[in-house]
Write a structure and sequence with these properties.
Chain lengths: 255, 255
């Protein structure tokens, strides 16, 4: 393997706490000359914020080594619709990525050509209504990801899928583009950053339907870790088969 | 006609302002010995609150003369599931109706057997997440109504349909029961209150798909008013045909 792609939540960290052995494993891979890239459907934060966290916790990742759906949203719009004003239903990290890509935020929802939806755990009725307005006045919808739930401190929590549902059900419109895993947007960007061939690339993640499915879809080697969303029992009865199943990132062979 | 059923929003009032002539028309009908009943998909308020408003504004309606979806929700649960604890995604008026029907509110969302969803213009992420939790822990979903939008002060606003969408999309569950127009729950309750035969009953409303459709579905006479959601042009091209089209409640013939 030339390159190793790591899902973040449930694989490298969980709720802003590193998983045991993550820093050592990533360091050893980097020392062995591998390209190591992080990827996540997280649209709440910017790459700068996440890289800063990892650097504080002993993982040497530059901003460019981390591909987040917030960045993909900004990158997609900058590439294809650089002049169109955007309305955001989401958090500060997403706005930071949009600003870094020189996109224009609409002053009013009625003036937006795109609504970008991500998780927003501070969302209010006003926020939902402003996003609704953008769409009934013609904005198309880009979602950073469509995960329905995420594991929070006290159990499962409502994820961006719920916010998408609110906007779709009230407007009667459907989301036009979802940039997060397992999309080709995510795949292409992360492979471009890794700079290697699919057959020489391993993706490591805790989700069968997101990480392992994306790897299988594009011909990567795949390793499931059991520190996140998926149990060994679930993996054994699933039709999605990883090449490897490991208790955690700590047990990753450095091949 | 023995009984006249009035939709409220867009027909009798609009955003807590009476439509010109509403008090006089309703008074004249009552004086002429007609049964006059108000009905609304509004699940945000209690009948007591709405009756108090109308009495202050010169319309003599008792609480029992007003059938709201908040009341229907409470009535349905009290009739069929009187012992089961309920979680509320909605406003104070809905809670008042549930309390009046002696229903028990669950202390935690995990303990609820029913989630009741209505419009909640103060909704936060926390509220959505608590409702989400009720459903993933087994609560069935009752919605007061499923209107996607309502006309607010500054244009269309996201209605209860959006909140339902958030819960359905994040939980993967579907709403079990919707009690508001044009359901048979609303029809039966309002006819019971009116105490008349369908062919001697006129329903007056501003919505083709809700008021006029419900009337047509159950064999009532129907009158569309143009003071709310529907224009004459929309009425003329619609497949839903009211018996009468009137500029407003003011022009209602007292037959």
């Amino acid at each position: 393997m030339d390159s190793i792609l790591f899902d973040l939540d449930g694989t490298v960290w969980k709720d802003f706490t590193l998983i045991d052995g993550a820093a050592e494993t990533i360091h050893a891979l980097q020392e062995a000359g591998k390209r190591v890239v992080g990827l996540s459907n997280r649209g709440t934060h910017s790459r700068r914020q996440i890289a800063a966290y990892f650097q504080e916790h002993g993982i040497q990742w530059e901003k460019e080594d981390i591909i987040l759906s917030s960045f993909l949203a900004a990158d997609y719009l900058q590439t294809h619709y650089p002049k169109l004003p955007v309305w955001v239903l989401g958090e500060e990290g997403l706005r930071e990525e949009l600003a870094e890509a020189d996109l224009t935020l609409a002053a009013k929802p009625e003036e937006a050509d795109w609504l970008v939806i991500s998780l927003h755990t501070g969302v209010t009725y006003h926020d939902l209504n402003q996003a609704f307005r953008a769409v009934i006045h013609g904005a198309r919808i880009l979602a950073t990801n469509q995960d329905p739930v995420f594991p929070g401190k006290d159990g499962l929590q409502l994820d961006v899928g719920g916010l998408i549902g609110a906007i779709e059900a009230s407007t009667g419109k459907k989301t036009d583009i979802i940039v997060g895993k397992p999309s080709h947007f995510m795949y292409q960007k992360v492979m471009q950053q890794a700079g290697s061939e699919p057959e020489k690339t391993l993706i490591v993640g805790d989700s069968l339907t997101s990480d392992i499915a994306m790897g299988a879809m594009f011909g990567l080697k795949t390793a499931l870790v059991l520190t996140g969303n998926t149990t060994r029992e679930q993996a054994e009865i699933s039709s999605i088969k990883p090449d490897l199943i490991l208790p955690s990132i700590k047990e990753l062979p450095f091949t």
